[in-house]
Amino acid sequence: MLYSLPPLNSLRAFEAAARHLSFKKAAQELNVTPGAISQQVKRLEGSLNTQLFLRMPTSLQLTQAGQEYLPVIRRAFERISEATERLQVTRGIEIVTVSTMSGFATKWLVPRLNRFQELHPNIDVRISTSWHLVDFGREDVDVAIRHGLGRYQGLRSWRLLVEDMVPVCSPRLLEGPPALRTLADLRNHTLLHDQERRDWSLWLQAAGVTGIDGTRGLSFTEETLMLEAAIEGQGIALGRSALIERDLAAGRLVKPFDVPIPNDFAYYLVCPDGRADVPKIVAFREWLLQETGGENISDPSSPASPGPLRSPGDR
C-alpha cells in the first residue's frame, strides 16, 4: 500500500509549534532555529494546500484546519512512540528519556554516557535538549536535569552539582596585547555573554571590580557557542565550573584570574514523585549521583514554591 504522507520533519515542526503556539519554543525543543520551524510549517501547509496557523504579530493561533489536524498528528506520534517502546521491551531494552540544556549535555553529560552504558547495557538513553521547563504530564520525558534552585512543585529533586563562575579565555589572550594581568585589564577586552544570563555585571560586582560595563560585548543564545568563542580567542567568558572542566584540562581554556564567585543556582535531577522508584530511573539517578557526589535534597511533601521557577539561569 502506498501512503500519501507529508515530510516527517514538517509534521514534527507543526506538532511542536502547535503545542507551544510558538515557533521559538518549538525550535528550542527540537534544537533548531525558529526560521527552520517556520520553513517546515510552510512546507507542510504547501503540501496540504491548507493554512494551519494564523500568524499574529506577537503570537500564533491554530486555524480550524490546524485544530482538527493537531490531535490526529499527535496520536500518530504517540502510537509510533508506543510501538517503538514495545519493540525495545521485547528485545529486553528499556529507554530513559532525559531532558536537559544543550550546554550541559554537550560539555558534561554526553562525554560520560559511555560509563552508564557499560553499567547498564539494557538501558538506552535518549537526550532531548531544550530551554523550557519540561511538562511531565504532556511530554514523553522520564527525567530532567535543570539549573536553578531545585524547588519544583510536584517533583522530586536531587542536587547534582554546585558550581562557581570564573573568567576563562584562550591561552593566546594571556600573551597580549592588550595586557591581561589584573582584573582592571578586563576593560580592554571583549566580554562574552550567554544572553539568557548576562552574569558579568553580577560577577564584577561580587569581585569588587568597578569602572567596567558588564553589559557590553558579544552575546550568544547558547552557552556552548559562548565558550567556543572564548576558545577561539574572541574574548573572555564567564564559565561555570561544571561546563569548563574538560576544556581547562585540555588547555583549550585557561583562567586569567582564579577568582571564582559562587553561583546561587545548581544542577538538579527532577522527576515526578510517582515515578521516582521506576527501576530505569533509579539506575540513571544512582549513576548520576555517583558521578557528581550529589544528594537527595527535596522532600516532595514539603511546601513548594508557587509555579515553575523562571529566575535568570533557571532552565
Would you give an account of this structure?
The structure is a single chain. The chain is an alpha/beta fold and 315 residues long. The protein folds into 3 domains: 8-86, Arc Repressor Mutant, subunit A; 92-159 and 265-296, Periplasmic binding protein-like II (D-Maltodextrin-Binding Protein, domain 2); 163-263, D-Maltodextrin-Binding Protein, domain 2, CATH 3.40.190. 37% of the residues lie in helices and 21% in strands. The chain has 10 helices and 11 strands. The strands form 2 sheets. Strands 3, 4, 5, 6, 7, 8, 9, 10 and 11 form a 9-stranded mixed sheet that branches. The protein has a two-stranded antiparallel ribbon with strand order 1-2. Strand 1 (53-55) and strand 2 form a beta hairpin. It is globular, with a radius of gyration of 22 Å.
What can be said about this structure in brief?
Helices cover 37% and strands 21% of the residues. The chain is an alpha/beta fold.
List the defining traits of the structure above.
315 residues; alpha/beta; Arc Repressor Mutant, subunit A; D-Maltodextrin-Binding Protein, domain 2; 3 domains; 9-stranded mixed beta sheet; two-stranded antiparallel sheet; 10 helices; 11 strands; disordered C terminus
Q: Which structural class fits the helix and strand makeup?
A: alpha/beta
Oligomer: single chain
Query: Beta-strand level of the residues, as a percent range?
Result: 15-25%
Question: Whole-number average pLDDT?
Answer: 85
